[in-house]
Write a structure and sequence with these properties.
Length: 827
């Protein structure tokens, strides 16, 4: 294992402080993912939204002793230059010009220590799937090391390559780029001997002048490979590869392809492919039919054929090929438990990311992991299960349920409370629901273990309507708004009304993980709920009633103060309380005429504030009445001007400057020059761009789904539902859906105003919407009982639905009733 001083000699950095040499086993770039402090080297990297240097102190406190930094870390109250000796006496520090470059240099050095063949994969789509499938197909013959999930960035690639060890016989790594000049760096780290270029799509075109430039940049990855696999059906790509003189192995429909596809035939769930290689025709059947999966499989086929694998062996392995599950779901479970269901690969890297996520679920103290045997090809059993045991211990897992013969054999390695079962059936047989209470449970099993059966046991049974919340999309939207802000502008996220219907605790938790500055809720009890579920961010309560002040203070919530009478009752309340300080937020009314102080209140406001020095104004804010509509621009600007004036007057009177904010989601987009110290993000996070000008930049977050309970034929002249409003003008086929106005499906959608999607087909509502159900016309559509129905989502945007019934997306989102189960997922 390399030590700090060896690594220091590899990078272009200078040693700032050296205490004693330590082994480096784990490279860390994200302080939230710390697992094994003693053998970790932390890289303080400056990112778009975060600066790694801000976390050095916290990591030191948690036991990290090796750091690569770009600057001296300033500690308040300690003289510059003296910092290291006094604040971090036991740590080694290396000063690098660029910490990310140092990480890449170290990974490149590590790669150079091994001689194994390495396949690099790039292209617009399918990188992760081709990587996972190729690993599945090769793994009986090779010990494969590969990128975890889609770790393909400037940081992800070095971390992936760092996993290589002497036991591996084949490497497969993804490389993804979004700008010119990134690929050369990745090529130096991966140093591939083989390559696959999956396809040329349109993703990330912004970073490039045109498709040809994008292709040429990506081809830099393959400058030195022995062979590049790609489809010669991609004309631009084919021309570019030939121009660059890269040796290749092509597949495609043209006769000059090395592996020529003669025909493709779908039957049932399989596609049969007739191909010709070196003059011989051959047939293979693959367990997929959609064009993307077929393309991904053909890349793998080309590699296997080139390796000379016997066609029988190939067929056996293709038969066993499994779809790549990238999905991780979180949901409520029985006995107030919370379930994390991760279907991604159960190897060490996959386990490690799942454990990171478990650690960041702050809702319950108690953490349980249900884990099957691991699929890991590069380590012997002893080492593997020692590492698994260490990973669980370091993440503070309280209880392990190990399922499988291999993990059971290594039971003595696990120091936490643990029980073992030889297989899933054995566990199911002994399952007792009352041995699980108030805990977060991570379920992580290799596919053959069929852990979906375990997940089903824990699931709370509800009717078939769910709101699926896409956490990747939510983070994407957060980052879209962040990219509009100056780095010093803070961000408060509105999670009032159950986070706009999406689910308050989970949303707050992911916002906390992504380090927003503030949260805001409407009422005290909403804030209390967040605190009870482990949310520690500052929280502003917009409308705290006087009778909730005790709760407010007990849970460290910060009140919005909007009137003199409210301020007086707050002051009276704290008179007998002994806290040293109280943070309040002053709301000014600049034209919305809802809540807030106006100028005439000022004199008394200042007098009252002077009576209680313990009360500190944390922020001053106001709210725009018409930020979403251009027609109100003049009015909005007037509001902003009077806000600035009023805030300045308050600051001069109270004698200190405070955080000022006025913009909501629409305002952030519309008034970039008035972001001030903080902005308040609401609906945009949930996927609706309220000015309508940048909707395409956001991703859909919530998808409301239900199911078909029954299908029936009715005759011309029959009527459907209450008040006989749905008249069949001809014979019809109708479907009854398990959603009604009590679930939040607005009654105004009735009688043809609304529609749903079933298997991609549009079905209009017929008759009135009932309390728990509604009926749709499915005449002529391909539908069956039990089919999934999309009520709103990507293909049926709530902006459109809202317009149909003359309301706004906010109302549709917040109307989804609490009885609808929320499922959170990421990919
Ligand atoms: C709800 C709310 C917001 C967020 O508004 P969006 O239009 O959802 O971005 C901002 N400020 C205040 C005071 C609010 O009540």
């Amino acid at each position: 294992m390399l030590t700090f001083s060896q690594l220091a000699s590899i990078t272009h950095g200078s040693v700032l402080q050296f205490v004693h040499d330590l082994p480096v086993q784990h490279l860390l770039t994200d302080s939230r993912k710390l697992a094994q402090p003693a053998s970790t080297l932390f890289f303080a990297i400056k990112g778009a939204f975060n600066d790694g240097h801000d976390y050095v102190s916290a990591l030191y406190a948690r036991g990290v002793r090796q750091f690569i930094v770009e600057q001296v870390v300033e500690i308040p109250g300690v003289k510059s230059g003296e910092n290291f000796k006094y604040s971090f006496p036991e740590a080694n520090f290396l000063l690098a010009e660029n910490s990310l470059t140092a990480l890449q240099e170290i990974a490149a050095f590590h790669r150079g220590e091994f001689l194994l063949p390495v396949m690099a994969i790039t292209g617009s789509n399918g990188k992760t799937i081709v990587k996972e499938w190729l690993a599945q197909l090769l793994s009986p013959d090779e010990k494969v090391v590969k990128s975890p999930r889609s770790y393909n960035s400037q940081i992800g690639v070095p971390l992936s390559v760092w996993q290589i060890n002497a036991n591996h016989t084949f490497g497969i790594f993804e490389a993804g780029i979004s700008m010119v000049s990134e690929m050369e760096k990745l090529a130096r780290i991966i140093r591939p001997t083989l390559g696959i270029f999956t396809n040329v799509g349109t993703a990330h075109d912004e970073g490039f002048e045109n498709s040809v430039q994008k292709i040429e940049e990506k081809l830099l990855l393959f400058k030195d490979v022995k062979l590049l696999f790609y489809s010669s059906d991609e004309k631009l790509l084919d021309e570019a590869v030939k121009r660059e003189g890269i040796k290749s192995f092509t597949w495609g429909h043209r006769p000059d392809a090395d592996l020529q596809i003669l025909s493709q035939q779908i039957s049932g769930a399989k596609t049969s492919i007739l191909y010709k290689f070196e003059g011989n025709e051959n047939q293979i059947s693959i367990p997929f039919t959609d064009p993307a999966s077929v393309q991904n499989t053909l890349h793998c086929l080309a590699v296997l054929v080139w390796r000379g694998m016997a066609s029988e062996t190939m067929q056996q392995r293709f038969d066993k090929l499994l779809p790549v599950a990238m999905r991780l779901e979180m949901k409520e479970a029985i006995n107030n438990c919370y379930l994390i269901d991760d279907t991604y690969n159960n190897d060490l890297a996959g386990l490690s990311t799942a454990l990171d996520l478990l650690v960041h679920q702050k809702r319950h103290q108690q953490k349980t992991v249900i884990l099957s045997d691991l699929l890991e090809s590069g380590l012997n059993e002893e080492t593997l299960y020692s590492e698994v045991a260490a990973a669980l211990k370091n993440r503070g897992v309280d209880r392990l349920i190990g399922i499988g013969k291999v993990i059971s054999r290594h039971r003595l390695k696990f120091s936490m409370k643990a029980e073992f079962y030889t297989n899933t059936a054995d566990f199911l047989q002994h399952f007792q629901s009352d041995s699980f209470h108030n805990e977060t449970i991570l379920v992580k099993g290799a596919r053959v273990f069929e852990f979906e059966k375990i997940v089903a046991l824990f699931g709370k049974k509800v009717h078939g309507t769910v709101l699926e919340v896409n956490l990747n999309a939510l983070v994407h939207n957060l980052n879209f708004y962040r990219s509009k802000l100056q780095p010093e502008t803070k961000i408060m996220v509105m999670v009032k009304a159950f986070a706009y219907g999406s689910g308050s605790y989970e949303i707050a938790n992911i916002l906390q993980f992504h380090r927003v500055d503030y949260l805001a809720v409407a009422y005290t009890d909403e804030g209390v709920l967040l605190r009870e579920n482990g949310i520690s961010l500052p929280i502003m309560v917009m409308n705290p009633s006087a009778d909730s002040f005790a709760q407010l203070l007990r849970y460290h919530l910060e009140p919005e103060i909007y009137s003199l009478s409210q301020l007086r009752s707050f002051l009276t309340f704290i008179h007998t309380d002994s806290a040293p300080a109280y943070h309040i937020h002053l709301k000014l009314d600049t034209g919305m005429h809802r809540l807030g102080f106006t100028k005439p209140d000022f004199e008394e406001l200042f007098t009252l504030l002077q009576t209680e020095p313990r009360v500190q104004v944390a922020s001053i804010f106001s709210h725009l009445a018409g930020a979403d509509e251009a027609l109100h621009n003049d009015f909005s600007k007037q509001q902003i001007t009077s806000f600035r004036e009023m805030a300045a007057e308050i600051e001069s009177k109270i004698g200190y400057s405070v955080t000022k904010h006025i913009l909501n989601s629409a305002g952030i987009v519309r008034f970039p020059e008035h972001h001030l110290d903080m902005v308040r993000l609401g609906i945009g996070l949930y996927g609706v761009e309220a000015t309508g000008t940048e909707q395409d930049a956001l991703q859909n977050v919530g998808t409301l789904k239900t199911t078909i309970s029954q299908i029936k034929h009715i005759q011309q002249g029959d009527t459907v539902g209450y008040s006989r409003r749905g008249l069949a003008e001809t014979d019809l086929e109708i479907a009854t859906l398990a959603i009604g106005y009590a679930d939040g499906y607005d009654r105004r959608f009735g009688n043809g105003n609304g529609e749903v999607l079933i298997n991609g087909q549009t079905a209009p509502i017929i008759g009135n919407v009932c309390m728990d159900m509604c009926m749709v016309n499915v005449t002529g559509l391909q539908v069956s009982e039990g089919d999934e129905v999309v009520v709103f989502g990507q293909e049926l945007p709530i902006t459109k639905l809202a317009a149909k019934i003359n309301t706004i997306p906010y109302e549709l989102l917040t109307n989804v009733s609490p009885r609808v189960k929320r499922v959170f997922y990421s990919e």
